[in-house]
Amino acid sequence: DERFMVIVTHHVVFDGWSASVLLEELGSLLDGNPDERRDAIASRGSFAEYCRRMHEWEDSEGCRGEIDAWRREIDPNPSVSAMPTDRSRDEDREVTFGVVETTLSPTTSSRLSERSTAWRTGTIPIINAVVGCVVVRAGGDAISTTGLALTNRARADLERVIGNFSNEAVIQCRIGLEESFRSILERTRIA
Fold first, then answer.
1. Please, which pLDDT band fits residue 75 given cuts at 50, 70 and 90?
2. End-to-end CA distance of the chain
């Protein structure tokens, strides 16, 4: 006897991290003791509490100071890079975006991990610096503006909470064509 369950969520209330939490919780409920799970769930933070803390942060001097720093740091009118393409661009066409899925080879993944250890940084800043270099070198601009989606789960009590904790971070970095990659990586990490 087979049964199927379909779960539909909206990204406004559910991030990628939450999917694994939900699946683990469902598996535990199906396999184990519901009272034990209820106690574990009751001991963790809540998304409502996180939202309340974020709302308080938005009204704080610290938040206003960070926003002012970002406004000074990031060009409010970045130019669109003139990336070379295999066909001419129609200036009036609507811009659309998509997702390109790829998997790194085991060798590349291993080398990336080795570099992140040697350079004392994560793999995401390295990949972001590589993207910045490609944008600058292919487009001819001196400034790369990219974005990262961050999980924003800085507290342990939020690791097992379902909700959208993502935070989009804009990374803008001036990149010299003759500059070393390590120098670019360091500025990307700081940005």
1. low
2. 55
